[in-house]
Amino acid sequence: MQSSIEKLRKFFRLEHENGYTNTAVIGGLANVLSLWEGEARNDKLPEEIVQATSATLHAYAALTPAERLESLKVLWKQILEKVPEAALGKKQASVKTAQPRPQPVSQPVSQPVPAPVEPQPHQQAVPEPETQPVVVVVDEKPGSAPQEQAPAAQPPAPKPAPAPRPKRTVPGRAEAHPGGVTSKRPIALNASLTVLAGVGPRHASMLTRLGLNTLGDMLYNFPHRYEDYSQLKPIRDVFYSQQVTVIGEVTMVNSHPLRGGKMTITEAVINDGTAGLRLTWFNQPWLTNRLKVGDAISVSGTVEQYLGRLVMNSPDWEPVEVENLHTNRIVPIYSLTANVTQKWLRKLMHQVVTYWAPKLTDHLPETVRQAADLPELGTALLQAHFPDSDAKLQAARQRLAFDEIFFLQTGVLRQRRDWQSAPGRIFEVEETWLERCLAALPFALTNAQKKVVADIRTDLKSGQPMNRLLQGDVGSGKTVVAALAAAMVNQSGAQAAIMAPTSILADQHFHTFQNVLAGENGLLKPEQIRLLVGDTSDREKEEIRAGLASGEVKIVIGTHALIEDPVTFADLQYVVVDEQHRFGVEQRAALRSKGTNPHLLVMTATPIPRSLALTLYGDLDLSIMDELPPGRQTIPTYILTPQERERAYALVRTQIKAGHQAFIIYPLVEESEKSELLAATQEHEALQKEIFPDLKLGLLHGRMKADEKNAAMLAFREKQYDILVSTTVVEVGVDVPNATVMLIEGANHFGLAQLHQLRGRVGRSEAQSYCLLIPDHEDAAENERLKAMAETNDGFVLAERDLQQRGPGEFLGTRQAGYATSLKMASLSDIQLIEKARTQAQALFARDPDLKDPENTLLAEALGRFWSGGKGDVS
């Protein structure tokens, strides 16, 4: 028998005798690996046995004694399967005729390794008498490696010992739910990547930069794209707008500066014998050292046209690996980092995925999996990394994406139930009282506003805390509705708090509340509505805090200053969070905690597509305001090329002569060597000196201090500036009715939702307003987002298009900080998948909301891991 196996046998025997205390070797069993791995490979042990041993021993120290016994038992079983002669002792395996070493009576000769054996009923583990089953729950997202359940396993009949060890009880781990069991996936998936052949500490640190720390991480490190060598096309057959992968030989490569040296363009030409294709990259001059004439490369991207020739702009490319060319397979392409090559990482991924994926236990209940027509988890992981066909790849990605949306939906449903289970104070509103309120307003409500007011009335008298999301397009009148809801609560003597992300927005809300509720014949006195922001004087802050504590102040509007400890309320029953995606969960929870289950209204001026709202905000009741108040006009939007910039300046001058004002927006604060984008600070100076020397220009950007930003915005609102040069810091909530021109430079670098928000800063009076979009180069004037802006003013239409074009990032605020990283496969623009996952989640939640049924045990554990990294909105 191999000496490496015999050494393991000795170590395991001694570990058994020591009661699985990790003392068989000084410093722990993992210390034997540095020498043992080399010896095992010299003995020609199967590589998977070397890996399994390394993984088990690396993870050994973190386990309880009972878990250690179980892990050694599993490992020894694997060894016996691959190395049958390990079942014999060293002397039995030799040709010598020497007698076998005598065994204790309790140890049969046929079982030379005493430790890893099945427990028997009522046996006691050494040294753990009366040990209960240990449940292990690992804090992880899908893709991490959970640990096994380690039952109170026992060794064979105890051998004579000099003295019994002191008795102690193994503390139980936290359970997913009462009676739960844990995932049956191997403990070894928690092992460091150094257990892999050829991966030392230096390589492991490089992989850490990719987020790969354990074997389990690698299972969920999905390719960012694939090279489909089974569907290669010759270059002569590609056509405009097609998304393709082609292979060719580099015939030319060079770089040269553009625009006075501010920008570099690298060009290459590849040829496959049927035709050539030109490739271009901007500001990547190092490619001239990477691409060499004669190299064979594969290129993936969208085929475009320039001056009548087919080109690819900024395509993905890889050196062609000859062995892949002839496989006729789909080859995964992984994200890389410095000093990590595709070939080396792919080899590691293949080693891990093909061995460990089939060993995973599926956490999805069989009933759900079959109803949704999904493959098993292990199969899906294997096919997601190394697909046998495009059909199997798509099925695998569908399964893994379903898991993510399903977990998200189930968690959101649980949050909704938790919120609704709490009691809320009832506020009844008389119809005559409401009619008096509406009659006192200086304007009539739109039908959309009336519907939301009715929704809020229903919530306030339901006996459960309101938990409503109000999304309305720019200028739809959300603040007025929020003020009316505050009045419904105030008329019973309770208090309201409105939290806005900036002092400017808080100040605007303050004036709206004063006009709506404290004007002539108002419901409240002006001193009962107060503004509390960072710039509020200390004397006034003390006065406001005293009024809130005594109940004299009925409504307070402010920023994060509202959640500071000195602020206490006599009876806070209504909370409004405006532009809620700008606040963290903890901030909103801190404000709600200042009342007792207060009614909550969260508002956003960013229209959210229905599919996204159902997924991310399923715990909230949804109200939509898609109707503008009378007098608000649509804003004509025009796309101009950089060469037509003077036309834009002419419109600005015309509007200023007519007594109006203008915004000019830039994508950056300051110029960067890495970017050609125009920057606000430099352009502000150039505009003032060269373009508009006779006008007054203000500057606003995110690096300014809060009081500087407020001062600049206030000066613009009071007409001290004709033009405000700014970054997107003006995107939300700034109300300057006299501004009629929104000129956006570098417009192709903004998302639709952001462009729509910026456009909403003008058109806030009866004066005709305009929005001008100037991309940073002529070709970008054909940008789909810019065309959509010119076609419609409907924010909800634009939101759907933005979701399709750019994904959900534009809509994900702090509330969903963990979602983007948790969703590795799912696209929140896939409405069909979202509806399927939502249907299954609702059906499961209706049957077993606490996931206590035995078939849902592993799902409960996986759901806990998915949500463990983030927090929901329920507190």
Describe it:
This protein has 875 residues and is α/β, with parallel strands linked by helices. 37% of the residues lie in helices and 14% in strands. It has 29 helices and 21 strands. The strands form four sheets. The protein has a seven-stranded parallel sheet, with helices on both faces. Strands 16-21-20-17-19-18 form a six-stranded parallel sheet, sandwiched between helices. Helix 10 runs antiparallel to helix 12, helix 12 packs across helix 13 and helix 13 crosses helix 29. The longest helix is centred in the middle third of the chain and has 31 residues, at 390-420. It is globular and about 100 Å long. The two termini are 61 Å apart. The relative contact order is 0.08. Residues 90-182, 812-818 and 870-875 have low confidence and may be disordered.
Write a concise synopsis of the structure shown.
With 875 residues, the protein is α/β, with parallel strands linked by helices.
Q: Major β-sheet, in short? A: 7 strands, parallel
Hey, roughly how much beta strand do the residues contain? 5-15%
What sort of overall outline do the alpha carbons produce when their principal axes are compared? globular
Low-confidence stretches: 90-182, 812-818, 870-875
In helices, the fraction of residues equals 25-40%
Q: What is the CA-CA span between the terminal residues?
A: 61 Å
Number of helices: 29
Secondary structure: number of strands: 21
Strand order of the largest sheet: 11-12-10-13-14-9-15
Helix-strand category:
alpha/beta
Averaged pLDDT, please?
Answer: 79
**Over all CA atoms, what is the radius of gyration?**
33 Å
